[in-house]
Amino acid sequence: MPATIRDVARLAGVSSAAVSKVLTNADNSIRVSEATSKRILRAARKLKYRPDIRARFLFQRRTQTIAFITDYSTLGTHYSHMTLSRCANQFLKHDHTTTVLFYDPQETETIERIQAMVEEGRFDGAILVSTDLPAIITSLERRDVPYIIVNPAHARRFDTIMFDEEDNLRLAFNCLLEAGHRHIGYLDYTKARDPHLTVSRRRDAYLRLCHEHHVPPYFFSEDFADVSG
Questions:
Q1: How many CB atoms lie within 10 A of CB 188?
Q2: CB under 8 Å, gap of 24 or more: what pairs does 138-141 form?
Q3: Helix/strand/coil percent split, the chain, to 5
């Protein structure tokens, strides 16, 4: 059978509360000397003790889980994959796991399920990528769950991380200019009823660069559907 806190306490000659304090930092009212802490850690290593993570989460009322929330339109995009992988790696370094939640903006059932997970306290924080659905944000704020939005769809009051669209466009623009091109077109996603904030920021950056380099703007409107290529 796996070792318990009582086994560690017996071997180290201390109370179970002292072991819990050293191994889980569960009770700030208990003080343990450095020498005793070392003795407890040696006993834990000798017994190959592993804490019961579920019990710790229940006691601390924390899940050590961060939700990564985005809609299906970002599925497979490079930036979404890169953001998820980088975040998940950082969370893992701090003993947190990542729950990935995709939803379809047109499917209220999926959105309501995510809201229910927030209300149930399934995670301690959330990262929303390219989405700022009021329904989900309202649930996060009601439960006082910290969150941040990466590349939000609209300019609002949230804590956000925005892509530097002008710097990205400038790099691409300069590369084409250095190659001798003077007719630089822009594939514009203008058919959306409510265009993403990134779309408008990128379009504005393109126009500024055209004006700055005295080249005429060329817009090509597409819907990015499979049939349009």
A1: 17
A2: 139/114, 139/115
A3: 50, 15, 35
Query: 103 phi and psi, to 5 degrees?
Result: -145, 160
Tokens representing residue 53 in the block: 């993570």
Among 62, 58, 64, 25, residue whose Cα is nearest residue 41: 25
pLDDT digits (tens, 9 = 90+) for 118-162: 888 888 899 988 666 788 888 898 888 999 888 776 656 667 777
Q: Which residues, including other chains, have CB under 8 Å from residue 61's CB and lie 6 or more apart? A: 121
Listed in order, strand segments (DSSP E) in the chain are 65-71, 97-103, 125-129, 147-150, 160-161, 185-188, 218-221
Please tell me the pTM assigned to this model.
Answer: 0.59
Written as six digits, the tokens of 52 are 């019961």
Question: What three-state secondary structure class fits 187?
Answer: strand
Q: Which residue has the tokens 């408008």?
A: 200
Mean per-residue pLDDT over the chain, rounded: 80
pLDDT in tens, 59-93: 556 778 899 988 877 766 777 788 888 888 888 88
Between CA 37 and CA 12 the distance in angstroms is 9
Domains of the chain and CATH, by start:
5-59 (1.10.260.40), 63-161 (3.40.50.2300), 165-228 (3.40.50.2300)
